[in-house]
């Protein structure tokens, strides 16, 4: 077979054509990455009707002074600041102060005293209310700049801009929820108990899990076609795809939006997620927050708030849509019911192209089958090789072991992508020794057709990822095949250039999204997506010489290794990049003992002296039984003089063969968090926490392996009431643990930070009671 050469343009060398094609592919990738980058910051002197992240920075400076866990003084200060700011902006805000119980995550249940801040901007002829929502609490030890002070500041700046533009048709409710980190409890309380909740026609929730990157629509409610229409028509440079929605729905993603989504209220989640090493840590600070990400988030809030503010919210429910962003800030969208017909057409086109190539003698069915198996083997080998490389890197850089994503995540992503692409290209060169370029190109598209057929039935929102790159790849194959038969390279070259557009515009974000969603420990799966993507560009790679030489593979691998070298050169912990550590202090008032505990496999040197030898871990009840499995080491500790939590029996009465008990639970040391669980065997038939019923079915048999219990955040100074109805009349034992978010003594170090947030850097104080 003849190679694809520009025979009708002899003035240009093969090298010129390859350079042009390489430059074109690089340009497309750069354009796509530019689309995925946040916009520039609008300064504070901009027109008043514009959103300005620089103006929002003023609110961020106040909100991020300290961590804001529910029930703490800094949490109260943040709430008071919100009330003052809303008053300055001309709205009368109110605090919804109530208790709530959540069972969504299962045992231990979540309960809290919440203080939501809510205000309403009236419309001229409201058809329902637009709800703009963000949570103002944070996890312990984290200033919560990205999660979610950014969302709170965005709402305040959006309100200011809306008032500068004049009245909207619909009311706009600004809801600053409490206890989102405890399981979306503030949103649950608003939806279930606040009278304004019944007016809500659409929800826009702003919640992020990083400190940089583009703001992305990462979740919508079902029947989202009109939501996506508003997104595409109003937001400059939106970043969104129905593939992300399909993944989010299957992962059971939980934010404040979940409460409204499950109730059938239309809505969407918007947030940024890069720099994931900062998420839920002390590094989620204002100086780490990219204001461009805040600007992008604010552009969504203002544009969508205005659009829905002037829409008939009664017309929002619709069918699901398939949607995705392409290049230059444009979006493609169509009804989800078209996914299957589109898939059928493209799969039939794949079949027709294959049959045509077979009749021309360019390929055989056996050759295509062997090539398909060969390319699947390439994907598998590339994935395994990347996993092996990560295994080696973990031995060199401890951050890859100790963190879900390392500080140098960007360099590692680029490095793994480059080395993975190099391995794929090298294996393609080997496969080309046995099969022709057309057979390999068609064989590499078999996984795409299979993925398209499966996704169009099982997950229509994901089908576009396979459909449009496959269509582009088929066009590229036709160009390659036609040029090899006719020698008309000039036209074929133009088709090859155009055929790369849908592949890169649609498929390039997938590896990045997988890196973010799966984290670095499973980054080999993102590299598998890179290998799959390269299979759709084999005609272009063939022209670049990848089928005849190892040079393209070597170049890709060289770039990847260089990026990994940069990552390793920047690796290491310091005061700017502190090491996570799970040091915890626990005291058991019943036994008079105390322990240092850690979740670290190997404690850092500054803490090693606390664990001179392996001490037996404390017995059940010192920590929540749902947390104690995380403990890896224990060391004896001095017993701090702490007042124990108390449980007072207020009333007892028989109920059938069992009994009902009413207690008052308190923390004399005013701890913001209490955990209560039944540590003896008992069947809990009904329960009521702080006046709220615990809805569970069937009754729970509490035992040592899975005790019935709950965690209460924002504990009032006077405590709360607990009512338990038991199926049996035998005695019951309760364990109560209060928690404060600091360690006794001085164990802080500038190069250490407390992680995980639900255990580390805390003092747990337990007592047992028998009734």
Plain-language structure description:
By secondary structure, the chain is α+β, with helices and mostly antiparallel strands. The protein folds into three domains: 14-35 and 337-570, no CATH class; 53-318, Zn peptidases (Aminopeptidase); 577-771, no CATH class. Strands 1, 2, 3, 4, 5, 6, 7, 11, 12, 13, 16, 20, 22 and 24 form a 14-stranded mixed beta sheet that branches. Strands 14, 15, 17, 18, 19 and 21 form a six-stranded antiparallel beta sheet that branches. The protein has a two-stranded antiparallel ribbon with strand order 8-9. The termini are far apart. The model is unreliable at 1-12 (pLDDT under 50). Keywords: Hydrolase, Membrane, Transmembrane, Transmembrane helix. It holds the Pfam family Peptidase_M28. This is M20/M25/M40 family metallo-hydrolase. The chain crosses the membrane at residues 334-355, 367-391, 411-428, 440-459, 465-483, 490-517, 523-541, 553-573.
């Amino acid at each position: 077979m003849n190679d694809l050469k520009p025979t009708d343009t002899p003035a240009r060398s093969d090298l010129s054509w390859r350079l042009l094609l390489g430059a074109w592919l690089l340009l497309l990738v750069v354009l796509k990455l530019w689309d995925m980058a946040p916009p520039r910051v609008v300064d504070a002197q901009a027109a008043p009707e514009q959103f300005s992240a620089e103006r929002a920075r003023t609110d961020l400076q106040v909100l991020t002074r300290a961590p804001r866990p529910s029930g703490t003084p800094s949490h109260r200060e943040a709430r008071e600041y919100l009330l003052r700011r809303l008053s300055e902006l001309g709205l009368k805000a109110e605090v919804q102060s109530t208790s709530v119980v959540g069972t969504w995550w299962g045992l231990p249940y979540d309960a809290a005293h919440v203080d939501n801040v809510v205000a309403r901007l009236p419309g001229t002829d409201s058809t329902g209310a637009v709800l703009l929502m963000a949570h103002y609490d944070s996890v312990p030890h984290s200033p919560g700049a990205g999660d979610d002070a950014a969302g709170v500041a965005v709402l305040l700046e959006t309100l200011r801009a809306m008032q500068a533009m004049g009245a909207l048709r619909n009311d706009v409710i600004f809801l600053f929820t409490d206890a989102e980190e405890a399981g979306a409890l503030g949103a649950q309380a608003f939806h279930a108990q606040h009278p304004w909740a019944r007016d809500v026609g659409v929800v826009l929730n702003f919640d992020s899990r990083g400190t940089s990157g583009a703001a992305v629509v990462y979740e919508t409610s079902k029947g989202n076609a009109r939501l996506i229409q508003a997104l595409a028509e109003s937001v400059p440079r939106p970043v969104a795809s129905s593939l992300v929605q399909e993944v989010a729905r299957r992962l059971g993603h939980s934010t404040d939006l979940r409460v409204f989504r499950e109730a059938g209220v239309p809505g969407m989640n918007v947030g940024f997620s890069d720099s994931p090493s900062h998420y839920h840590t002390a590094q989620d600070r204002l100086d780490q927050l990219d204001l461009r990400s805040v600007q992008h988030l604010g552009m969504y809030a203002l544009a969508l708030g205005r659009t829905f503010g002037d829409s008939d919210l009664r017309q929002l429910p619709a069918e699901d849509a398939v949607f995705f962003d392409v290049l230059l800030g444009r979006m493609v969208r169509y009804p989800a019911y078209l996914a299957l017909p589109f898939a059928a057409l493209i799969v039939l086109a794949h079949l027709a192209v294959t049959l045509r190539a077979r009749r021309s003698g360019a390929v055989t069915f056996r050759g295509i089958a062997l090539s398909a198996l060969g390319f699947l083997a390439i994907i598998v080998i590339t994935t395994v090789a990347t996993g092996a490389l990560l295994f080696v890197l973990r031995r060199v850089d401890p951050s890859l072991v100790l963190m879900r994503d390392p500080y140098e995540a960007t360099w590692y992503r680029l490095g793994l992508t480059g080395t993975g692409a190099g391995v794929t290209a090298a294996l393609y060169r080997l496969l080309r020794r046995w099969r022709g370029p057309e057979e390999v190109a068609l064989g590499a598209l078999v996984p795409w057709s299979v993925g398209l057929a499966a996704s169009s039935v099982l997950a229509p929102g994901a089908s576009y990822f396979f459909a449009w790159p496959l269509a582009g790849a088929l066009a590229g194959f036709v160009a390659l095949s036609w040029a090899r038969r006719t020698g008309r390279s000039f036209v074929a070259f133009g088709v090859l250039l155009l055929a790369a557009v849908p592949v890169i515009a649609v498929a390039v974000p997938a590896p990045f999204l997988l890196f973010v969603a799966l984290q670095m420990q499973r980054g080999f799966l993102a590299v598998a997506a890179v290998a799959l993507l390269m299979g759709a560009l084999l005609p272009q790679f063939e022209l670049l010489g990848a089928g005849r030489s190892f040079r393209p593979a070597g170049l890709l691998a060289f770039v990847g290794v260089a990026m990994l070298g940069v990552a390793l050169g920047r690796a290491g912990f310091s005061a700017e990049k502190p090491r996570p550590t799970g040091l915890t202090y626990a005291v058991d008032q019943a036994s008079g003992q105390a322990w240092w505990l850690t979740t670290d496999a190997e404690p850092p040197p500054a803490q090693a002296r606390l664990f001179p030898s392996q001490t037996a871990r404390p017995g059940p009840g010192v920590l929540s039984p749902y947390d104690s499995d995380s403990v890896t080491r224990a060391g004896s500790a001095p017993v701090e003089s702490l007042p124990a939590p108390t449980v007072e029996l207020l009333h007892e009465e028989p109920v059938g063969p069992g009994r009902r008990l009413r207690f008052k639970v308190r923390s004399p040391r005013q701890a913001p968090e209490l955990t209560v669980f039944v540590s003896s065997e008992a069947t809990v038939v009904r329960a009521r926490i702080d006046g709220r019923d615990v809805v569970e079915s069937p009754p729970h048999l509490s035992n040592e392996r899975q005790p019935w219990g709950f965690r209460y955040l924002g504990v009032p100074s006077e405590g709360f009431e607990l009512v338990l109805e038991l199926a049996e009349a035998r005695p019951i034992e309760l364990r109560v643990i209060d928690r404060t978010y600091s360690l006794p003594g001085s164990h802080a170090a500038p190069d250490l930070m407390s992680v995980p947030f639900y255990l580390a850097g805390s003092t747990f104080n337990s007592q047992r009671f028998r009734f």
